């Protein structure tokens, strides 16, 4: 009985034990699964952090290596002066790919701030408007020698002409991007504006003189430099010429913008200060009127700048030219002097023939600094006079 009972009693106890075992086992399974899952996840995360850390460390190591063990985390970037001040204010080369409109626009920028944030030695821009060769080049080279700091040269050639000068000449590499010029047409004014605009890109250029291949200097460089830099006025010939060669070239189609009483005539060979150069390259309105209505027998190069300055900036102009020329022979062209005409007395008479001219608020016997026109054969006799007469 007892066995039975025992059996009876044993039966349910055994069942309870089995159930407990199953419970424990399943808990164990869940626990192990959890541990495995947990381990897997954490190893993934670990791996992620490790790789990031590796990247970071690798970088550090690399930069530390690059900086010569100087404990610098990031290697300093090499300093490249992309917005170079020196090249902006003093372009060292005249070659560029800007169009006329682009270079006129750049040249028209006027600083609003007083003074210059660099050591500015004012320079004279000598702008040569040529038909090709420069036969009097050796005379000019002698004139410029030893004064590099005080001038810049710009040469406008027919566009396919290459000026061949030695690399130690001040004319070397000074040919600006040019276009062909038709004498007597508005393309001559274009060339003048092109020279002015290119010369304006150098912020040290203060005075701008237009010269041709047949012009010569009649004083030495220091005299010319002082005369121009110290002048309060520009030297643009500008006068009212009542004849058909003056007023006769005016067109009533220019009304209402330009009146006959404002119309002026003057030599193309000007000398102007920086402000006036900026105004001239900045103008489109009056240039367009001249282009449209000043056609032969009206010549824009003899009227545009003299009229424009008279209308707006007359008070800055002396109304006379510093380039001597001889019209006494009559006709449409001035006299050209060749080798046989060159004497000491002749050059002296251009330098001073007794006439006085106004300069700032005084009078002076120095009226002209340059002279034209001189043929290539004048070169040798002129070179023999430079030390005795022109003093250079
Ligand atoms: C460490 O940096 C300093 C300052 O930048 C520098 O003068 C020095 O030459 C550097 N040393 C090395 C070993 O690069
Ligand atoms: C330029 O001038 C040099 C020396 O005067 C001469 O040897 C050379 O042939 C010239 N070149 C051209 C393209 O005229
Ligand atoms: C030049 O002419 C202008 C008129 O265009 C006049 O205002 C100016 O005073 C003249 N200059 C001199 C120095 O006489
Ligand atoms: C230059 O000299 C030549 C020959 O001696 C002469 O015929 C000519 O008139 C002179 N020219 C001038 C502009 O004086
Ligand atoms: C001096 O030169 C000027 C300009 O060329 C001229 O008008 C004047 O008559 C000359 N004077 C003398 C005395 O030759």
Automatic annotation (TrEMBL):
<keyword id="KW-0472">Membrane</keyword>
<feature type="transmembrane region" description="Helical">
    <location>
        <begin position="21"/>
        <end position="40"/>
    </location>
</feature>
<dbReference type="Pfam" id="PF02485">
    <property type="entry name" value="Branch"/>
</dbReference>
<keyword id="KW-0808">Transferase</keyword>
<keyword id="KW-0328">Glycosyltransferase</keyword>
<dbReference type="InterPro" id="IPR003406">
    <property type="entry name" value="Glyco_trans_14"/>
</dbReference>
<dbReference type="GO" id="GO:0016757">
    <property type="term" value="F:glycosyltransferase activity"/>
</dbReference>
<keyword id="KW-0325">Glycoprotein</keyword>
<keyword id="KW-0812">Transmembrane</keyword>
<keyword id="KW-1133">Transmembrane helix</keyword>
<dbReference type="GO" id="GO:0016020">
    <property type="term" value="C:membrane"/>
</dbReference>
<protein>
    <recommendedName>
        <fullName>Core-2/I-branching beta-1,6-N-acetylglucosaminyltransferase family protein</fullName>
    </recommendedName>
</protein>
<dbReference type="InterPro" id="IPR044174">
    <property type="entry name" value="BC10-like"/>
</dbReference>
């Amino acid at each position: 009985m007892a066995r039975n009972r025992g059996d009876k009693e044993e039966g349910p106890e055994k069942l309870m034990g089995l159930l407990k075992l199953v419970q424990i086992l399943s808990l164990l399974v869940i626990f192990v699964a959890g541990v495995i899952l947990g381990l897997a996840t954490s190893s993934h995360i670990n791996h992620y952090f490790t790789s990031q850390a590796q990247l970071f460390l690798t970088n550090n190591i690399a930069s530390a290596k690059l900086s010569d063990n100087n404990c610098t985390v990031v290697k300093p970037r090499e300093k490249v002066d992309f917005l170079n001040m020196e090249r902006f204010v003093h372009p060292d080369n005249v070659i560029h790919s800007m169009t006329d409109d682009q270079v006129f626009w750049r040249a028209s920028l006027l600083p609003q701030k007083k003074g210059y944030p660099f050591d500015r030695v004012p320079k004279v821009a000598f702008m040569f408007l040529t038909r090709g060769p420069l036969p009097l080049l050796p005379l000019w080279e002698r004139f410029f020698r030893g004064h590099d700091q005080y001038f810049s040269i710009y040469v406008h050639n027919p566009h396919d002409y290459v000026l061949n000068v030695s690399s130690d000449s001040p004319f070397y590499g000074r040919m600006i991007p040019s276009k062909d010029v038709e004498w007597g047409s508005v393309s001559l004014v274009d060339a003048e504006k092109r020279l002015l605009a290119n010369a304006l890109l150098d912020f040290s250029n203060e005075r701008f003189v237009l010269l041709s291949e047949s012009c010569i200097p009649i004083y030495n460089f220091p005299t010319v430099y002082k005369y121009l830099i110290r002048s309060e006025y520009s030297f643009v010939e500008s006068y009212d010429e009542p004849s058909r060669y003056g007023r006769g070239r005016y067109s009533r189609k220019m009304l209402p913008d330009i009146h006959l009483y404002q119309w002026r005539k003057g030599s193309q060979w000007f000398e102007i200060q920086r402000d006036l150069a900026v105004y001239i390259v900045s103008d489109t309105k009056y240039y367009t009127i001249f282009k449209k209505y000043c056609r032969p027998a009206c010549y824009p190069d003899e009227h545009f700048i003299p009229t424009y300055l008279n209308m707006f900036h007359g008070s800055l102009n002396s109304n006379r030219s510093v380039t001597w020329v001889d019209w006494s022979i009559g006709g449409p062209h001035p006299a050209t002097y060749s080798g046989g005409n060159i004497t000491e007395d002749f050059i002296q008479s251009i330098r001073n023939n007794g006439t006085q001219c106004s300069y700032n608020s005084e009078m002076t016997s120095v009226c002209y600094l340059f002279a034209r026109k001189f043929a290539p054969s004048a070169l040798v006799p002129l070179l023999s006079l430079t030390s005795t007469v022109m003093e250079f």
